[in-house]
Amino acid sequence: MLLRNFNNLLLTNKIIIFWWVGVLFFSPMLAQATVEKIVFTTEPQMVVPGQMSGSITIQTQTSDGIKEDVTETMDLIFSSDSSTGEFLGSTGNPVTKYMSKNSANRTFYYRDSLLGEHIISVEATGRDSGHKFSASQKITVSDTPVATSTDEDDSQTASSTAVVIVSGGGNYSAHSSQTDLSDYEESTPSIGAGRKRLAIVGSPIDFKVEQSKGASGINRYAWSFGDGTSAEGEQVSHGYKFPGEYNVVLNGYWGNTQLVARTKVLVEEAKVVLAKIDQRLGFAEVVNNGQKEINLGHWVLRGAIDTPLPLDTIIDAGKSIKVPLDPKIFTATSSQLVLISADGYEVVKGEGLSILELENKLLQLKEQLMALQFDPDQSLAGGEVLTGGEIENNDQKPTAKIITLEPKLSWWQKMFRIGK
What we know:
By secondary structure, this protein is mostly beta strands. The protein folds into 5 domains: 1-31; 37-141, Sandwich (Immunoglobulin-like), CATH 2.60.40.10; 152-268, Immunoglobulin-like; 272-368, Lamin Tail domain (Immunoglobulin-like), CATH 2.60.40; 374-416, no CATH class. It has 3 helices and 29 strands. The protein has helices at residues 2-32, 355-371, 411-416, and strands at 37-40, 46-47, 56-61, 74-80, 86-88, 98-99, 105-111, 116-126, 132-141, 191-192, 197-200, 204-208, 210-211, 220-224, 230-232, 235-239, 244-254, 257-268, 272-278, 283-288, 294-295, 300-302, 306-308, 314-315, 320-324, 338-340, 346-348, 384-391, 400-407. Strands 2-9-8-4-6 form a 5-stranded mixed beta sheet, with no helix packed on it. A 5-stranded mixed beta sheet has the order 11-18-17-14-15, with no helix packed on it.
């Protein structure tokens, strides 16, 4: 009995000893497999003022520099020593300010208009533990063009469809909802309204929602086009009646969830000239006299038959294109062609005025005509007055007014009839 108790006690002591050996041996190894720092894994970049940088990535790592997923959501604070620096997501909206649990990488983009070398910093704080980590990196803003690894182009072009890039409004936004601008990423519920757009007055622009997989449950999309009009739907079309820069806001609704994205549209007058019609060679030359490229998609060359210009018929600023013509477009007696805009205005050969300029000229002519309609006895700058009289017509037709100019008399001239 005593021997059995001794053996049991010895076994228990062995177990305790092995447990302590395991704790002392394996604890340092386990301690190493925790997040100890965040680092920038991408090289410092040089960016052009006002344009998005290439992708910038931070990563959580162990003390040995090994990638390690976080075990809690990390709240992120992005900062720059430049007062004009912006931290953006892939869509151009303000970056989402957290790192999800069980992830190790966070990618963002940077935009700045202030030339020089700046320091950008990221501070990560554990939402549950409160543990803090930070990292910094230099970035240079230079007006010298430099090739970057950006996946998308944030420039304004006249393409007819909205694709990936969204124009964010920086850290400040005037949209009506208190909901923050969403950052378009596949891993989180987010939407995008498309890149910045360049359009001409009257031509329709197609807008289409870009959404992540996590936002597939959204059942209502509301667009505000910035000119007092709106529409609903996942894909909509809108044309602007007046030139200007417009803010387009997209709201997505999903139960009690609301996501917001926005972009900009720059609308220009189309200064188009139908410069030449060559019936022998079979082409019409169309010139863009504007300062920006234009898209003549939805326009039509009209003669005996219509020749629609295909979507994305783009003419660079100050350039021209030659449109091949079907011989059937001419009649036996006329080679006259007109170019019809998307909203129905006609441009005939040799005309180079924009629609707005034509309307202004008509208004000026109207004002000049109105100025000629004087009231009887109205004083003129030259010291003369208008007097009215009637001319009778022997054919009993309505009488016409006759207007004569007479010198304007002072009171004493009228008294003595001087000057009559």
